[in-house]
Design a protein that fits this description.
5 helices; three-stranded mixed sheet; 2 domains; Collagenase (Catalytic Domain); 323 residues; alpha/beta; MetalloPept_cat_dom_sf; 12 strands; globular
């Protein structure tokens, strides 16, 4: 495989405190004494929820310089005309880079088997950044309190910050993003942990267990957000929505579903018929989704017709050949 070696200084990154929207769509004031950030948590049965985890007491300092080999897994064209997907690994030692490569290829194969990625696979560049860790594995595996010396500080129970959600596999977002930036371009960074235990998390850098066959679906869901601008279609944890019309293409406050009227009554790839199904975008009532159960609601499903259209439209904005 052709390998290029690039270096990039690491910049200081400020940690932003996220607050939960109130039931009417407003934003609550930050609680200074107990700031939290929201992460998507994924269950083996496909269920997706949002979990509030305490913000780390202080951001971990990034190393002064990041150095890693960048391996092109798939390179189909110039980055300004392609979507660049970048994998970074954590808990892989120098002797485990072949294992890491197999994990990357496996996750890409799983992702690119799902439409519309399958039909547009040739318009993606896929990069593997060979982040080398001092020790193999991730924190809190096999049990809470187990520690590993790794490059990206990845760990279950969200690095020990959420003792209620074992499957929440969090990473030092700043470090992961800096390593991801070693690739020629990064439209989405996915961090793979060297573990077979099921886990992952959403965020600016999505995470997944590298050796777990089910965890690849997390990347599919997260690319729905980052490429298609799609809303989550699950209805947890809030009750009734009373705000304005959502900006995402697959969520509406209109019970008629007029936002996607051209698809109403049509059979959707995720099963069932396009309509207006109540419960979406974290609210049980007052917001509607196009279908009963797409990938934006449950892992292992397909994108619905509205979601597929949004994804393809996003492809067209960057890829001249398909405009």
């Amino acid at each position: 495989m052709r390998v290029s070696r690039l270096t990039l200084p690491v910049l200081a990154v400020a940690l932003v405190v996220a607050t939960a929207p109130a039931s009417g769509g407003a934003v609550e004031s930050p609680v200074e004494s107990n700031p939290v950030e929201w992460r998507e948590a994924f269950s083996p049965d496909g269920t997706i929820t949002r979990v509030a985890v305490p913000v780390a007491a202080e951001p971990r300092a990034a190393v002064s310089e990041v150095v890693a080999d960048v391996v092109p897994v798939q390179q189909t064209g110039p980055s300004d005309q392609r979507f660049d997907l970048v994998f970074v690994g954590d808990g892989y030692t120098s002797s485990e880079l072949d294992t890491y490569h197999r994990h990357v290829v496996g996750k890409w194969d799983e992702l690119s088997a799902v439409e519309p990625f399958k039909s547009y696979k040739q318009y993606f560049n896929v990069w593997q950044v060979n982040v080398v860790s001092a020790e193999s594995g991730v924190d809190n595996d096999p049990a809470l309190g187990s520690a590993r010396d790794t490059a990206l500080d990845m760990g279950f129970w969200c690095q020990g910050r959420d003792v209620n959600t074992e499957r929440l596999l969090c990473v030092n977002q700043a470090k992961a993003a800096q390593f991801g930036a070693l690739a020629p371009e990064a439209d989405q960074v996915i961090a793979l942990g060297n573990t077979a235990k099921y886990g992952g998390a959403g965020g600016g850098v999505a995470t997944a267990a590298g050796a777990n066959a089910q965890a690849g679906q997390i990347a599919v869901h997260e690319l729905g957000h980052s490429i298609g601008g799609l809303a989550d279609e699950y209805d947890y944890p809030y009750d009734r929505y009373s705000g304005g019309e959502p900006f995402e293409p697959n969520a509406t406050a209109d019970p008629s579903g007029a936002k996607w009227s051209r698809y109403l009554g049509q059979t959707s790839p995720d099963g069932g018929t396009v309509g207006a199904y109540e419960g979406s975008r974290y609210y049980r009532y007052g917001l509607y989704r196009p279908t009963e159960n797409s990938i934006m609601r449950t892992l292992g499903r397909e994108f619905n017709l509205v979601g597929r259209e949004a994804m393809v439209d996003a492809f067209k904005t960057k890829i001249p050949e398909i405009r």
